[in-house]
Design a protein that fits this description.
By secondary structure, the protein is an all-alpha fold. The protein is built from 8 helices and no strands.
Length: 203
């Protein structure tokens, strides 16, 4: 009796249980993504990126609710306790090096937008996985999953546009400083070519 019980406990989890683990992992991960994008929206409130980040935060929250609906349809229990650990990890992530100890660095925008893009790419992989599973499981609304995948693709494009804008703000040289340096270099070069003329000698 005990040996049979031991063998049953050692058996690998079945597909249904693995799908439940997979969906709960994505559900838990979405908590950190929502917290991050809402915080970024607050930071950029009043700036050009603010409304886009606010709309994106609302969409990601809606996507999470869509995931819950799919989980309910699949009879997968939502393990909300995992969200606590994810939210703590997201808060710890705020302390990552960004070149400044107290004030917010422009590098923070680049790093956070990259993190958000990676998160949405993971979400896109989730929708594509569910679209594949829907071929043999009619409990999944394949049309709804396709719409969610298309929205994730659009979100990725939006995040990439914002990320590249942040890259320009952070790493591109200041235009005025570059022009000043170019003029100074031209002046130095001109003096080297015509030293006597610059000294007031007749040519």
């Amino acid at each position: 009796m005990s040996s049979e019980s031991g063998r049953s406990r050692s058996l690998p989890p079945g597909p249904r249980r693995l799908l439940g683990i997979y969906l709960n992992d994505h559900y838990a991960g979405s908590a950190g993504g929502i917290a991050l994008v809402r915080r970024m929206a607050r930071v950029h409130h009043g700036a050009a990126a603010g409304p886009r980040l606010e709309a994106l935060a609302d969409e990601i929250a809606e996507d999470r609710e869509s995931l819950v609906e799919i989980m309910v349809a699949l009879d997968v229990r939502v393990k909300r306790a995992r969200n606590v650990a994810v939210r703590l990890a997201e808060k710890v992530g705020r302390a990552k090096p960004n070149g400044r100890l107290i004030s917010r660095s422009p590098l923070s925008d680049v790093l956070e937008l990259e993190a958000l893009r990676l998160g949405v790419e993971g979400k896109l992989a989730l929708w594509r996985t569910l679209a594949h599973v829907a071929r043999t499981d009619d409990r999944i609304d394949s049309a709804a999953v396709d719409r969610l995948a298309a929205r994730a693709e659009r979100q990725i494009r939006q995040l990439e546009d914002m990320r590249l804008a942040a890259v320009d703000r952070t790493f591109a040289p200041d235009t005025r400083a570059a022009l000043h340096e170019a003029k100074a270099e031209a002046t130095r070069h001109d003096r080297m070519r015509h030293p006597f003329h610059r000294a007031g000698w007749a040519s």
